[in-house]
């Protein structure tokens, strides 16, 4: 169960999604997003962090408000022991509900679930991992705990002192506390306040002097992909909250179409954390979810119960070939090239001229004697191609117009080294 605050957030997020759906897509010829110059001369957010999409684990999707220090330690242990760390999962991120009270000097303390944050950070670091934390620009977080309004610099310094490596900054109560209170009828002024709030924490993190991945969580409002990189954002949520069911995963996936232009090294679209291994997702759904997040160059932040993880879920999360699609250094996000009925075909260009093709059966029951036929011509390919089927782990031959039979919500994911 998630806190009630998330329910109202879901409603707000739905409203924001409707608003997003009504916005015209940005033409691909538009100038690249502006970057803020940092003292090093590197664009802010494209420095040493997040040159490929961040990988790790976050507490929210499984533990929600119940997460404790011990859960974080156990999860870090499992990341190291399960092979996930070796596969690239590095960030162990504490989401909402770690916060206690501010003292008379304004310094924020942890609550009883997290007795000593510095000791926890040291523990996570001792495993060769990094640690993330959560706050927001309002008075309160989404779950109703103290957030950073008026204490941005103090909090950023505290994170740096603790040794925090990643901050998820969630808009939540800032809408009521500031935007709607101070400019009730002026949407443009509200949006400016939101930009300023993200810029303020960006500067505070920068001034605190520790490299910290800066993750915006404001559900894609106001075409965040256009302005987040210029404020130091390394990633930004593009939608409302994900849930562990196919409908949620597939609708979020579909909303990423057209955003591929904005992803690149140091700055990524974030279609939300993984639900692989959660809820009642079938193995096909888990595979497809993971494959498509890799195609999208999305952050791969697992959100499952790591100590209780089944081997088949570990095998999905640690599939090196699929992870390599996500972590490809070119940093291109996939495009949906075409759809026929319930089947979507996405293509991602990879470094060295390679290509990944994903054929996804989004339908819930189609499995017939008239399978989908894959058009290589529509993908700009000529003739037969050899590739690797990344889930079967075998060489596969792709021919134009070849039949592809996929079970409900399953995927064919192929890497072609030399597309012609
Ligand atoms: C919002 C975010 C979630 C999670 C919760 C925590 O709903 O979108 O990812 O961080 O807040 O309260």
The largest sheet is: 8 strands, parallel
How does the overall form come out from the CA principal axes? globular
- Quickly give the structural class: alpha/beta
Arithmetic mean of pLDDT: 90
Proportion of strand residues: 15-25%
Low-confidence stretches: 1-47
CA gyration radius, whole angstroms:
21 Å
Write out the strand line-up for the largest beta sheet, numbering strands in chain order: 9-8-7-6-5-2-1-10
Oligomer: single chain
Number-wise, the strands total 18
Give the count of helical stretches: 13
Q: Span between N and C termini?
A: 50 Å
Helix content: 25-40%
List the ligand species.
Answer: alpha-D-galactopyranose
Q: Could you write a compact summary of the structure shown?
A:
By secondary structure, the protein is an alpha/beta fold.
Topology:
Layout lengths: L3 H19 L32 E4 L1 H4 L5 H13 L2 H4 L3 E3 L5 E4 L5 E3 L6 H10 L3 E6 L16 H11 L3 E5 L3 H9 L4 H22 L4 E5 L6 H4 L7 E3 L8 H10 L12 E3 L12 H13 L4 E3 L8 H7 L2 H7 L8 E6 L2 E7 L5 E7 L10 E3 L10 E5 L4 E5 L3 E3 L6 E6 L4
Bound molecules: alpha-D-galactopyranose.
Alpha-D-galactopyranose binds next to helix 1.
Structure description:
- 32% of the residues lie in helices and 19% in strands.
- The protein has helices at 4-22, 60-63, 69-81, 84-87, 117-126, 152-162, 174-182, 187-208, 224-227, 246-255, 283-295, 311-317, 320-326; strands at residues 55-58, 91-93, 99-102, 108-110, 130-135, 166-170, 213-217, 235-237, 268-270, 300-302, 335-340, 343-349, 355-361, 372-374, 385-389, 394-398, 402-404, 411-416.
- The termini are far apart.
- The strands form four sheets. It has an eight-stranded parallel sheet with strand order 9-8-7-6-5-2-1-10. Strands 11-12-13-18-15-16 form a six-stranded antiparallel sheet, covered by helices on one side.
- With 420 residues, it is an alpha/beta fold.
- It binds alpha-D-galactopyranose.
- Residues 6, 9, 60, 95-96, 141-143, 170, 217, 241 line the site of alpha-D-galactopyranose.
């Amino acid at each position: 169960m998630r806190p009630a605050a998330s329910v109202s957030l879901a409603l707000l997020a739905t409203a924001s999604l409707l608003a997003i759906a009504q916005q015209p897509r940005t033409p691909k010829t538009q100038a690249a997003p502006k970057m803020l110059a940092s003292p090093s001369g590197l664009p802010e957010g494209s420095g040493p962090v997040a040159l490929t999409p961040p990988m790790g684990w976050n507490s929210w999707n499984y533990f929600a408000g119940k997460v404790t220090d011990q859960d974080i330690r156990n999860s870090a242990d499992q990341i190291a022991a399960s092979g996930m760390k070796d596969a690239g999962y590095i960030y162990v991120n504490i989401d909402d509900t770690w916060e206690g009270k501010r003292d008379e000097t304004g310094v924020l303390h942890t609550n009883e679930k997290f007795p000593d944050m510095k000791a926890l950070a040291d523990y996570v670091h001792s495993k060769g991992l990094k640690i993330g934390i959560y706050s927001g620009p309002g008075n309160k977080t989404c779950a109703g705990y103290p957030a950073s309004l008026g204490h941005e610099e103090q909090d950023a310094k505290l994170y740096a002192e603790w040794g925090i490596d990643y901050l998820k900054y969630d808009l939540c109560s800032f809408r009521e506390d500031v935007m709607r209170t101070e400019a009730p009828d002026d949407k443009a002024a509200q949006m400016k306040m939101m930009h300023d709030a993200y810029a303020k924490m960006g500067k505070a993190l920068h001034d605190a002097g520790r490299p910290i991945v800066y993750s915006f969580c404001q559900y894609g409002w106001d075409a965040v992909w256009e302005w987040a990189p210029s404020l130091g954002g390394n990633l930004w949520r593009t939608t409302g909250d994900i849930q562990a069911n196919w409908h949620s995963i597939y609708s979020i996936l579909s909303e990423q179409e057209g955003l591929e232009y904005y992803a690149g090294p140091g700055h990524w679209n974030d279609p939300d954390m993984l639900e692989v291994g959660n809820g009642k997702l079938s193995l096909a759904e888990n595979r497809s979810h993971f494959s498509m997040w890799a195609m999208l160059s999305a952050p791969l932040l697992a959100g499952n119960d790591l100590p209780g993880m089944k081997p088949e879920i570990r095998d999905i999360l640690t599939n090196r070939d699929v992870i390599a699609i996500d972590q490809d250094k070119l940093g291109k996000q996939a495009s949906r090239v075409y759809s026929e009925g319930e089947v979507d075909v996405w293509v991602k260009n990879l470094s060295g001229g390679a290509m990944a093709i994903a054929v996804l059966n989004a339908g819930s029951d189609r499995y017939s004697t008239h399978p989908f036929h894959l058009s290589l011509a529509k993908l700009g390919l000529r003739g037969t191609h050899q590739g690797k089927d990344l889930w079967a782990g075998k060489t596969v031959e792709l021919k134009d117009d070849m039949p592809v039979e996929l079970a409900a919500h399953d995927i064919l994911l192929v890497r072609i080294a030399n597309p012609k």
